[in-house]
Specification:
Layout (H helix, E strand, L loop, with lengths): L13 E3 L4 E3 L2 E2 H6 L4 H10 L5 H14 L6 H10 L5 H9 L11 H16 L3 H14 L19 H11 L4 H19 L9 H11 L4 H26 L36 H11 L8
Antiparallel strand pairs: 1-2, 2-3
Helix pairs in contact: 3-8, 3-10, 4-5, 4-11, 5-11, 6-7, 7-9, 8-10, 9-10
Amino acid sequence: MDRTKVLNQATSISYKTEEKTVLRGYDLSELAEEGYSFYDAMYILFQNRIPTENEEKMLKYEMGVFLEHSMSPSAAAAIGVITGRPNLPTAIAASIMTFGGVHGPGAAHGYMLNKYMKRAKEEGKTIDEIAKILVDDYLDVGQPVMGMGQPQHVDSDPRAEPLHAKQEELEVGGVYLELQRAVEKYFHARRKADGKGHVGVNVVGAGNTALCDIGFAPNAAWCIGSVSRGYSCAAHALYNMKKGRAWAASKSEPMVQMLDLSMIKYLGPDDRPVPTQEERAEYAKQQKEEGEYKQWVI
């Protein structure tokens, strides 16, 4: 039978036949048979290379540390969505979609480091010098330094320093770790000089540093973090499906539920009568003239 192609799909990632699936030239089944791990496959997938044993260990450690973080925007999203009892992948997708500028994995930290390393090379600055410039550039205009601060771990993110230490232990630290350490040094000094409290490095600042040093681009690091936390969010959603109540508003549970009416604290305008249609024109005019409505505009 003469079959016409509907689409020509070009890719350098993989291909498959009836007999095998090939990832970047490696038969995926043969990789598994030879003892290569999921983490090894991540290197092949994103970097087209088999990692050294220590590089594989670093990725394994980073993904393990990042896997779970209990109640956070992503976990709350997974739980909130699954209370409506849609298909499970819907809740997982919603949880991953919470990852952005202030939560979860992201590319901003890696791009920040890349930007200032490029600038250091162009301006002939040392890593130490460019780290101070980076901190001052951000803090002078009131912008947060990516990778610093975690609202639930006020003193210090317990995952961060061990990540730095693991890089050093496995001897996979490089220029990114050097720059990140210097950024932390000048960030702490600047906040102290400004009379502000201590804000520690977070898991993104430490984890993305490690991922960059072992060869992953900022967006690839973002993907890896999303995969890791996605497993955790799936577990939170599954737990709610099996142990929790749909709608998350039951008064029969020992703990107040997410959507219990007592959770609502209303701060808006006081209750008021609805004007009749005959009163509408004068009512609307008076509201505009008084201007009180403006404080509620969003």
